[in-house]
């Protein structure tokens, strides 16, 4: 297959083959596994502690903010590595440096916001 759409046909064929392999493995697993459900096996398991009470539990908003800060730093790291590799290429120096300072400015704004809201203090 040549031409523009030939590459897409190959990708779609490989995707279909992958789906068939995964679906086949799951079907074989379902056919061969033993099934002996008991009351103890059907209980919810959480860290070795028996479930007590209902499933509703409140948590502090601070933990969600920690999660968002982690995502901010992870995204920052994901963009810093490719930037560091392209920065040394000819013709990309000043433009890439300016773009990275804009990006780091947005990251700094997020950190300053979290600091002003006293989220970064551990109590």
UniProtKB/TrEMBL annotation:
<dbReference type="InterPro" id="IPR038430">
    <property type="entry name" value="NDAH_ubi_oxred_su3_sf"/>
</dbReference>
<keyword id="KW-0874">Quinone</keyword>
<keyword id="KW-1133">Transmembrane helix</keyword>
<protein>
    <recommendedName>
        <fullName>NADH-quinone oxidoreductase subunit</fullName>
        <ecNumber>7.1.1.-</ecNumber>
    </recommendedName>
</protein>
<comment type="similarity">
    <text>Belongs to the complex I subunit 3 family.</text>
</comment>
<feature type="transmembrane region" description="Helical">
    <location>
        <begin position="63"/>
        <end position="86"/>
    </location>
</feature>
<keyword id="KW-0813">Transport</keyword>
<keyword id="KW-0520">NAD</keyword>
<comment type="function">
    <text>NDH-1 shuttles electrons from NADH, via FMN and iron-sulfur (Fe-S) centers, to quinones in the respiratory chain.</text>
</comment>
<keyword id="KW-0812">Transmembrane</keyword>
<feature type="transmembrane region" description="Helical">
    <location>
        <begin position="6"/>
        <end position="28"/>
    </location>
</feature>
<feature type="transmembrane region" description="Helical">
    <location>
        <begin position="92"/>
        <end position="115"/>
    </location>
</feature>
<dbReference type="Pfam" id="PF00507">
    <property type="entry name" value="Oxidored_q4"/>
</dbReference>
<dbReference type="InterPro" id="IPR000440">
    <property type="entry name" value="NADH_UbQ/plastoQ_OxRdtase_su3"/>
</dbReference>
<keyword id="KW-0472">Membrane</keyword>
């Amino acid at each position: 297959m040549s031409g523009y759409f030939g590459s897409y046909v190959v990708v779609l064929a490989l995707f279909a083959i992958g789906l068939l392999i995964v679906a086949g493995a799951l079907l074989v697993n379902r056919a061969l596994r033993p099934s002996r459900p008991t009351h103890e096996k059907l209980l919810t398991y959480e860290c070795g502690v028996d479930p007590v009470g209902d499933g509703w539990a409140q948590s502090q908003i601070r933990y969600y903010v920690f999660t968002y800060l982690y995502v901010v730093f992870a995204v920052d790291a994901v963009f810093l590595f490719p930037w560091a590799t392209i920065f040394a290429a000819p013709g990309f120096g000043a433009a890439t440096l300016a773009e990275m300072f804009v990006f780091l400015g947005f990251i700094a704004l997020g950190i300053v916001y979290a600091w002003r809201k006293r989220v970064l203090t551990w109590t």
